[in-house]
C-alpha cells in the first residue's frame, strides 16, 4: 500500500530547475560578499577622513585692504592649518626598570648608553622616550586628543609588564603645524617691515623667522608662501597664523 505524502507525480523537480536555484544561491552569495567588501571600504574611508579632519584646523584670517588699509569682511580667507606633530609629556609616579621593558615590551629599542627606552605604538602612531625616573615624552601624534590617547595606551602597556603606573601630569608641550598662503612672499620686504621681531639670514636658512612672544610661538616663512608654526598648543598656533597673515598679505609678490 502506497501512502500519499502530499507530492503529486507531476510535481517532481526537474534537474534544470535545481541548477537554476543553485545558480541563484551562488549569485546571492557573490553579491553579498561584494556588498560586505563595499561596506568595509566605506568604513576605512570614513576613518581616514576623520583622522584627516582631526589634523586640520581651519583659520579665518582677514586680509587688509591695500587701498584703505582697513580690515574688510569681504576679504576673509579660510586657511587650512595641518598639524604634523604634537609633543606631550606625562609621568608614571613609579620607578621604571628599563632593562625589564627592553626584554618584555613590544616594539621597543633599549639604549643603555643614553639611559632610555624607545617604544612605538601603531594606533595611534607615536614614539615614546621612556626614562627610569618615570618621565615619558611622546611624539608623532597629529592632534591633542590623539596624543592623550597614545599616552594612556602607553601607560597601559607598562602596567601589563608589571609596573604600578599611575597616569599623571599629562600636558602638551609643543605643536608643529604647516600652512600654505595663496600667494608668494617677498621675504626681504617682510623682514624690513617687522624688525626686530623678524629676522632673515639666507646664508643660514632659506626662511625668515618671526617670533611672537605673547603666544610663545615661532613662524618660519618661506618665499613660496609656505609657513611652519611651532607653539605650546593648537590654539596658540591658530592665533599665530591669524596674527601674521595681514603682515604677509602686505608683502605678497604681484603676479606678472
From TrEMBL:
One of its GO terms (molecular function) is DNA binding. It comes from Bagarius yarrelli (Goonch). InterPro entries: TBP, TBP-like, TBP_dom_sf. The keyword DNA-binding applies. Belongs to the TBP family. One of its GO terms (cellular component) is nucleus. The lineage of its organism: Eukaryota, Metazoa, Chordata, Craniata, Vertebrata. The keyword Cytoplasm applies. It is found in: Cytoplasm; Nucleus. It holds the Pfam family TBP. It comes from the Eukaryota. This is TATA box-binding protein-like 1. Keywords: Cytoplasm, DNA-binding, Nucleus, Transcription, Transcription regulation. Its main location: cytoplasm. One of its GO terms (biological process) is DNA-templated transcription initiation.
Amino acid at each position: 500500500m502506497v501512502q500519499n505524502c502530499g507530492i503529486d507525480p507531476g510535481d517532481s523537480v526537474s534537474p534544470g530547475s535545481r541548477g537554476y536555484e543553485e545558480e541563484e544561491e551562488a549569485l546571492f552569495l557573490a553579491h553579498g560578499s561584494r556588498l560586505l567588501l563595499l561596506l568595509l571600504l566605506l568604513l576605512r574611508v570614513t576613518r581616514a577622513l576623520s583622522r584627516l579632519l582631526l589634523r586640520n584646523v581651519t583659520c579665518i584670517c582677514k586680509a587688509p585692504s591695500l587701498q584703505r588699509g582697513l580690515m574688510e569682511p569681504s576679504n576673509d580667507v579660510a586657511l587650512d592649518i595641518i598639524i604634523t606633530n604634537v609633543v606631550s609629556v606625562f609621568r608614571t609616579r613609579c620607578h621604571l626598570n628599563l632593562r625589564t621593558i627592553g626584554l618584555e615590551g613590544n616594539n621597543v629599542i633599549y639604549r643603555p648608553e643614553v639611559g632610555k627606552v624607545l617604544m612605538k605604538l601603531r594606533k595611534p602612531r607615536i614614539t615614546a622616550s621612556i626614562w627610569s625616573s618615570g618621565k615619558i615624552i611622546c611624539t608623532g601624534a597629529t592632534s591633542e586628543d590623539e596624543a592623550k590617547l597614545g599616552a594612556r595606551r602607553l601607560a597601559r602597556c607598562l602596567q601589563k609588564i608589571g609596573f604600578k603606573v599611575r597616569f599623571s601630569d599629562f600636558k602638551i608641550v609643543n605643536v608643529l603645524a604647516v600652512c600654505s598662503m595663496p600667494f608668494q612672499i617677498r621675504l626681504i620686504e617682510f623682514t624690513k617691515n617687522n624688525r626686530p621681531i623678524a629676522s632673515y639670514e639666507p646664508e643660514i636658512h632659506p626662511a625668515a623667522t618671526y617670533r611672537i612672544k605673547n603666544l610663545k610661538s615661532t613662524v618660519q616663512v618661506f618665499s613660496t608662501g609656505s609657513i611652519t608654526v611651532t607653539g605650546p598648543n593648537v590654539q596658540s598656533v591658530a592665533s599665530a597664523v591669524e596674527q601674521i597673515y595681514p603682515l604677509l598679505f602686505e608683502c605678497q609678490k604681484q603676479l606678472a
